[in-house]
């Protein structure tokens, strides 16, 4: 089977194939903007040819650093937020064993911090790290983001207390801009090992840079297979052999123009929960601007069929679903027969659990389509590093094209500054005196 297949038959009650095809010229223009750098945001297109250009020596270097951290640490904390967090979290969660994911006996746990300012979260993390051999990967492209800066200040102080300032330097890796930002200054002053986030790769497109690759490698996963999958999808997308990103971008925009304002990304495999979180950031930050954009939401089924299922089946008809359908599970498990059959389940005895899951998926699709919820299916063969690489590149390419069809600059995020300005004013950050006075007048 193809690595990724986009199936759109079940949108046709809402939009016709002709309505989707009518977007072909806009999609082609969006594709050209992405590939040739002729559109808005063209200084942030470094991700387009990134997978194919990554050198084996760069991946070896990342693997070497990961190996060193693994050898010297029981726990590695990856500090970052948004694009400096979600890609690594998504891939690690997707590839991990649910119950042995932290593999305490063999590899260090990869934990995350700096993705919130929860005092209890940070307190409990510090308690957990007390007396453990831990290391830090601190990730911030701007090098000035408040959430990771707070977490790093706390954990760096703790690490230096636990092992001494000199030894701590060998246990800290910084991933940031080549020249700018407070983190770059600090890393250079302290002499930390650093990796650079290329200027032309935005945070939410940075999972295949050291931002994502180093934590994923520390967690013990095959970054070469991940990048190879993405490079394969890059080659197929750019050559036109794969039209899947175009099909997805056109279909979701046709649905949007037909009044479907919310897209729910659906999975039937709990390993994909954080992949949806990554996707939400990618599409939310790329498209939600100029008072436009599909609202990206997600559910984990069948779990959420018992909470959000009612709304999806019968709520306001402004939604569509995009289901990531995984063809094969990693393991096989059959439902046992039971002589007493008190639970009435013998009718499925001998069947694979995945067969039941797939019937739940099919039954739900039919019910939701009948209930007025158009359905896009993205079929992938399995959840492996290689397939995830394909999927990451597919969604990135489709996002760039889709943003151009929508008529926005998919590569900026001016709206994320508004809360920061208010927070700095409320915290009375030097330089924000006028904003402090203005916001206090509103309280
Ligand atoms: O996609 C983006 O650009 C953002 O989500 C950033 O990744 C996020 O705000 C973190 O920024 P930084 O890496 O500069 O700390």
Walk me through this protein's architecture.
The protein has helices spanning 17-21, 24-36, 50-53, 56-72, 86-95, 119-129, 146-163, 165-169, 182-190, 210-218, 223-239, 244-257, 273-287, 309-314, 353-370, 385-406, 417-426, 433-442; strands spanning 5-7, 75-79, 109-113, 134-140, 172-176, 193-196, 262-267, 295-300, 319-326, 375-380. It is of the alpha/beta class and 443 residues long. The model has no long low-confidence stretch (mean pLDDT 96). Helix 13 packs parallel to helix 16 (385-406) and helix 17 (417-426) packs across helix 18. The protein is built from 18 helices and ten strands. The longest helix has 22 residues, at 385-406. It has a five-stranded mixed β-sheet, sandwiched between helices. A five-stranded parallel β-sheet has the order 3-2-4-5-6, with helices on both faces.
Keywords:
443 residues; alpha/beta; five-stranded mixed beta sheet; five-stranded parallel beta sheet; 10 strands; 12% strand; binds 5-phosphoarabinonic acid
How would you write the strand order of the largest sheet?
Answer: 1-10-9-7-8
Which secondary-structure class do the elements indicate? alpha/beta
Oligomer: single chain
Please tally the helical runs, counting DSSP H or I stretches of 4 or more residues: 18
Query: Considering DSSP H and I runs of 4 or more, what fraction of the residues is helical?
Result: 40-55%
Rg computed from alpha carbons, rounded to a whole number of angstroms: 23 Å
Low-confidence spans? none
Largest sheet features: 5 strands, mixed
Globular, elongated, flat, extended or rod-shaped: what is the shape? globular
> Would you tell me the overall average pLDDT?
96
Number of separate strands: 10
Strand content: 5-15%
Q: What are the bound molecules?
A: 5-phosphoarabinonic acid
Q: What is the end-to-end distance? A: 59 Å
Order of helix and strand elements from N to C terminus: EHHHHEHEHEHHEHEHHHEHEHEHEHHH
